[in-house]
Amino acid sequence: MLLDWEPVVGLEVHAQLRTEAKLFSSAPNSFGAEPNTQTTEVDLGMPGVLPVINQRAVELAVRAALALGCEIQPVSTFARKHYFYPDLPKGYQISQYDEPYATAGGVPIQVNGELRVIRLTRVHMEEDAGKLIHDDAITGGGVSHVDLNRAGVPLIEIVSEPEIRSAEEAGAYLRSLRSILRYLDVSDADMEKGNFRCDANVSVRRRGAPELGTKVELKNLNSFKFVEHALAYEIERQIEVLEEGGTILQETRLWDEKANKTRSMRTKEHAHDYRYFSDPDLVPLRLDPAWIDALRRELPELPHERRQRYQRELELPAYDAQVLTEDRDVAAFFEETVRLYPHPKTVSNWVMRSVLAVLSEGDRDLAELPLTPAHLAALLELLDQGKVTAASAREIFQEMAMSGTQPAEIMRARGLEAVSDSGELETLVREVLNANPSQLEKYRGGEEKLFNFFVGQVMKRTRGKANPSVVREVLTRLLAG
Q1: Domains parsed from the chain with CATH numbers
Q2: Radius of gyration over alpha carbons of the chain, in Å?
Q3: CA 196 from centroid of its chain's CA atoms
Q4: pLDDT tens-digit profile of 273-296?
């Protein structure tokens, strides 16, 4: 059925900026404080107060737009976006509407080995709203409370063109965008903390049809998994409705993660419903071209640029390069390890299989571990020298990542030195052969795959400490005799 239809998806991403203060007030921009303790009169919408733009927020917003290849507008304006809700004390939100500070640009994505760029419509600045608390354990049931700590926090809204064609592409877009923002230190881009939020506009049309279908907005998408699941469900729902002769309503729908489906929230608003007009308390924002150029020169190497360099200069597979560059700290750890131990593919394997596994198991950042590139490089040197086996190295790594102890010290303390003495191993090999006469007979009868069985038995007796190459050498000689 999907072969007859084409999904059309556009994403609107709100990313909180990493500033110390809010967009128009001196209130702290921090997460996790007691409700309603991070506010000023400006955030609470008190009469007689005036907003003052946060220059640091503008700087971070411009850095993000430059990295996304946007056209920075020399003059932009702020508007009042009116809607009445308990978490918006003023009754309007200060945003940018018809004159945003950045237009065009794009986000590079890689899906099924294909690299393409999803174009952007605009990037604009605005202040965040507060937060409603519906948790019955806190409110006692039947009552919602308002926390205005988030009101006034600086946001950028990144609006894509409707060029995304699947749920998988949407996930790739969001991961790429988050990675870029984190590389720049512009935003924590953490969905769990609500500082990286996504709304999706989705419609379907017959393949080859020039006109777009009726779009539905999806809200309450607070993880990459939920974005992909919600889009997949909604695309299928719309196709089924149209196949049965029905019509799609232009509406806003919520993703119900427990029911694993979308449900209607309200009919879709239009721009005129918000009664936009220029904010009389804020002058137009004028950006100095020389200042913009200075920020452009300071941009770091971006994830997709680093990914291409890894493939070109280090000859890494595309998959390795993709995984290693998603997080800036992981990429830096990898590069420093390669500098100390110049075997990129080996280092890549260990970072992807062992380092990332430790981070995932503990839900931690690399900076929280006592593990350094020097630790990993030293462990890989021990492996190369035959002083430890692969099994022992994995055991050493686990302790090293938790304690920060040098690998050689762990090796000695736990008796994990590789057994490489050919005389000692010959004795063990003879014991294994004598203990398995039927397997020995089958091997000499032509079942050569039993060779690995004998190797495994020797490794078992040495608890993985026998040097595999020496074991194979001794075993080959004795079996031949």
Answers
A1: 2-293 (no CATH), 301-413 (no CATH), 422-480 (1.10.10.410)
A2: 29
A3: 11
A4: 778 899 999 999 999 999 999 999
